[in-house]
User: Fold these one by one.
Assistant:
Number 1:
Amino acid sequence: MKWGVVTFPGSCDDRDAVHVLRHDLGHEAVALWHKDADLHGVDCVVLPGGFSYGDYLRCGAIARFSPVMRAITEFAAQGGYVLGICNGFQVLCEAGLLPGALVRNRSLRFVCRPVHLRVESVANPFTQLAVPGDVWSIPVKHGEGCYVADAHTLDQLERDGSILLRYCRSDGTRDRHGDVAAADYNPNGSLRDIAGIMNATRNVFGLMPHPEHAADRELGSCELPRCSADGLKIFQSIADWVAETRERASAGSLR
Amino acid sequence: MPVIARVVITPKRGILDPQGKAVCSSLHTLGYEEVADVRVGKFLELRLDARNGGRDVAADRVRAMCERLLANGVIEDFHFELVDGDAGTGSAGSAGSEGPPA
């Protein structure tokens, strides 16, 4: 399994992601520079958190036109796996690889705290190691994480099982007030409590919470008394999926 | 002839604008009860060299700039006007508006 982690000017979680992939998963992880037009044969690209190009104009709007994003768009069109975390999620929405957009938090405040997430769907490369209804604890840290899309798009995401993670209480419950959550378990006001979505072809996943900050006991992300490594399950899910896909392909070619 | 494009980007109707809401309530606090709604957007001024093709071409290109980069059609609307660059930036609208709301 070979991972590529992109660094845009202003990315700040790229090294954390590389650390988790190398240290906690023991995989090969290469750094991809924003000017790289070549993805070096990686199996999965991680677009990390941060403030690419200073978040100028809109979060992710400038990064979208970088050379590496042209390569990633092509990679995704061919079925390559792409994981966008926080700013990476914003970049994927701006690039049109995921529907909708991320706007200013409803509170107008930057939010930095652990949140609870309910796993909604598991038949996919990104959350396959979970059971539907599992509650994960993973931190968020963002000022523009309020997911918005028109009602038609939201309905389509629900129908396709493309909403993988929703904000919830520690016991997994949510309030339902139409599209808008009134409760404080939703840190940014995202419609329908959406924390992470994947595309229709199930190879591109974006989420606002930071799995790389909940994957390594040495880095913290502890929610006492249990030390949460829930974020690691996302990286592990992708790695297992890639390995299984490769096994199936090689078994097919032997036949 | 230099042309200046004045681009105004606003949150789409129906898209939550928490900044606008905060500004609105602040104005109410100051006693401006007549303010019914505030939408906070962006204003961009582009100085163009419009020698090739004149204003029609410039308008088409500014529209494309808005659609491709300056505005995000999922959450934002835009409109723009082109004004004579030699006239300075002070005579808003008098040089003619070329961009009806998109």
Number 2:
Amino acid sequence: MSLVDALTFWRRSVQARVVVSTLVLGTLAVVVVGWLLLAQIRSGLLDHRTDQVASEAAGELREVRERLAATSTVDTDVPTQRRDLVSPVILRGLSRGFSVVLAGPAATGKRISEGGTESTPGLDTSSVPVALQRHFEDPEAPTAWTYTTIRTTTPDGETRTVPGMAVGSQVELPADGNAYTLYLLYPLDEQEETLDLVTRALVAASLVLLLLVAGATWLVTRQVVTPVRMAREVAERLAAGQLHERLEVRGEDDLARLGVSFNQMAASLQLQIRQLEELSRVQRRFTSDVSHELRTPLTTVRMASEVLHDARDTFDPATARAAELLQTELDRFEGLLVDLLEISRFDAGAAVLEADDVDVVEVARRVVDAARPLADQHGVTITVEGPGHPCPAEADVRRLERVLRNLVTNAVDHAGEPGTVEVRVDADDHAAAVTVRDHGRGLAPGESAMVFNRFWRADPARARTGGTGLGLAISLEDAQLHGGWLQAWGRPGGGAQFRLTLPRRVGAPLFHSPLPLVPDDVSGVEPARSTEVGDRS
Amino acid sequence: MTEPAVTAPDAAKGRILVVDDDVSLAEMLSIVLRQEGFDTELVGRGDEAMGRFRAYAPDLVLLDLMLPGLDGIEVCKQIRAESGVPIVMLTAKGDTVDVVVGLESGADDYVVKPFKPKELIARIRARMRRFEPVSSESLQIGDLTIDVAGHQVSRGGEPISLTPLEFDLLVCLARKPRQVFSREVLLEEVWGYRHAADTRLVNVHVQRLRSKIEHDPERPEIVVTVRGVGYKAGPA
């Protein structure tokens, strides 16, 4: 497992984090408690031993002093007296397990290392700490002790080092009246062994304890984490649309109640989604049924009207006019019906995009060619300006044609007589765009947002021009279905421009259009009064 | 595949079977068609359509998709199973999958309700008009031999049966091998649309044609797609 994997595991696994945290905290607690315990035991052991050593040493010294007091003051020389003084102590030390060093005289300030001492054979005299020796440089110094390390050499030449205590006291030698220092070195190896034993036992016990704690934590967290993980898996499956998925609930504890609530939530969601689906299905079905039910009689009426219209020359003038009106109003009715059904299909979310690779320039030319008869009727000239190369985009031709047809007929309707409509097409690597510009009455500020509203009219007093009032609303939906934009720009008296931008691939993000929304002929002039609207959803 | 002979006693322009459950519409259709000089026969139920088809031997079938008894798609498949006669669907849903399903089951063309009578007549005329064969013209494309005058396509002497529409589509492409035809041009040349219409017509019929003439319809070698443009006959 790589470091990244390990980090991921760490981030994802509550269990691992809880177990590790518990272990860390547990180790800290055990270390602190163990250290305190050890310190307690150690000081207990040592206190006991020091008391023992102190009384033992006091006994030895008392005996030494008594012996010194008993000897005559002048009849012996100093070295003999020293030897007499030390040898019984050394002998007893050998049997009782302590070592002896006699140093001095104190007044000379000579260190033990400089020689002239009497000591237990095999003892390394440097075992007496220098600090203690310094204490006894003063001839009046009282009895004192300190911890030390006792180094001895056995007759085999082996060196041993044991912890110990050094007790020192000054005695006055009657031979020269000088104060000599007698050091008694007691080993503490028994205490050390006991301490070692206790330490080992403590460490072993701690390890076992920590293992138990870790195991217990792992088990406990597993009990909590397992249902949580199951809940996660079920939630993921629910999110993926498997609405019948439910948690398995066992027992009555908190986790079981969580499971029950979770399942209730899932059931409620499932119900809601089913209802919405049903609603959408019914709506779609209704649209389709209305479509079929209305279209069939309309077809019959339309054919009948056509027959009457064709025969109107044989009717009297009023009936002939009625036949004409029937024909034109049927056209309008049909247009409205088709647009209404289209809008309701968008509302029901039933609009499907059938995208194909198309050349937007070609489509634009085709739409403009088809619109020319209408434009001629209105005395409007339409021009198409392409970039000189194909402008490919993935689009639903039928929808693209409808959008362009709506934009062009809308422009022709509003261009004024005589007027001009300019269609421009361009494309870059990411998008294709078409702008349709007219020079009619234009749009008032704020109106460019409203042109896409259903049945919106710029001027309610103005006569309808034949459009259904749904064309731009449908066009906007069509553009959005492609993931594209449909935007309007206009200025009162300055005409209007509509821009359709389609991504090169359906649904690809759009950031920019190959053509400007504000026409070149006005951009820069009074920019503050132009209104831009967009739908950049 | 049998070509129904045009032997109407009243020298009508052609015989049209109208399959539609809406009595008024069917009657209106027959009024308009008779005005245009066609002979018509009406059927109101899907399950009766086949019997009447065999008895009447029409030159063209107008078929509504929603029919009682047997739905239009099934009727379409049954007719296709025994005849290549042109089928024009009448549908109320111009942009749904119904159209594609209808075309895939063998319909040559469709009109969306509500249609203008002139539009319908134009569609019918286009389907009944055939390519004027240049005398004893024979085309070779890939390993296929096309006898244009005899309306026959064969591979190594084995005849392949195509509907008249599929035949026209293949001839149109084969007459100018290696030239790329856009879907719009094909619609105009083969279907007779003056304005561009639904290019799904072309896609579906190219698929049907391929399934009959290609060795591997998944990797076509005779009718090749030129991405973003259209189709052409011959090797890529």
